[in-house]
Design brief:
- The chain has a single domain (3-269), classed as Divalent-metal-dependent TIM barrel enzymes (TIM Barrel, Alpha-Beta Barrel).
- Helix content is 41%, strand content 14%.
- It contains 9 helices and 8 strands.
- The protein has helices at residues 20-26, 42-52, 80-97, 115-135, 158-168, 179-185, 189-198, 223-233, 254-269, and strands at 3-7, 31-33, 55-60, 101-103, 139-142, 173-178, 202-207, 238-241.
- The longest helix has 21 residues, at 115-135.
Length: 270
Amino acid sequence: MLKFAANLSLLYTEVPFLDRYALAAQDGFKGVECLFPYDDEADAISRRLQDHGLQQVLINAPPGVAAAGEKGLACLPGRQAECLDGVKKAIDYALILGVPRIHVMAGIVPDQAAQAAAQDQYLDTLSKAATLLQGAGLDLMIEPINPVDMPGYFLSRQAQARDVLAQVNMDNLRIQMDLYHCQRTEGDVTRHIGQSLGAGLVGHMQIAGAPDRHEPDTGELNYSYIFRQLEAAGYDGWIGCEYRPARGTRDGLGWLQRYWAAGAATAQSA
């Protein structure tokens, strides 16, 4: 069966962040992820993980000045040292929390004329970041993000991410493949899964319904079909539930309960 991780930055927002770990465990999740955990001490988060038998499977490195709307620094000339300092901070958290992978956001390019400089900067920064993470035994994730939700974001297409991996050529650099963003940007989701997963380029996946980013049993993506394709391909990584519940988190978990129930029934009849 596929492994699903609750994204605690978007789910269970009815309660304070640290209290979300207990709710995720109560609902049957074994893994959790979040965006930026840095408002809380790593030791406090680690205690929640241990108390509730959870694995933290993903965090993001700091994105820059969030209050100024920054969405990462990796492609921005003149910001490399700050970006790498953020990567080091993320590594410190990851080692305490037992996190195996860190997402480093690319950043928003100010104008089209800056694309070439941003590309050179991005490749160089990723190479340095991957080297830092490799020394700590961690993987570096890059995620194409759709230009509707995040206009000007440097990395938006799946083929672009595959090309970046080829150019940087580091064993611990992988694609964080968010199927919601893939659908919003270019569609053809299962073909992109086949191309990236088949080549061993995917280190983590995320899901949400499209186009509204609610539960995955809503919208235009057929996740029942997608899940069967992932099972057939032997995908054994985590799938982050990075969606905004349409009502409350628990009210919208029927899709996951049905998946688990079907898997249990299949195992029992085998």
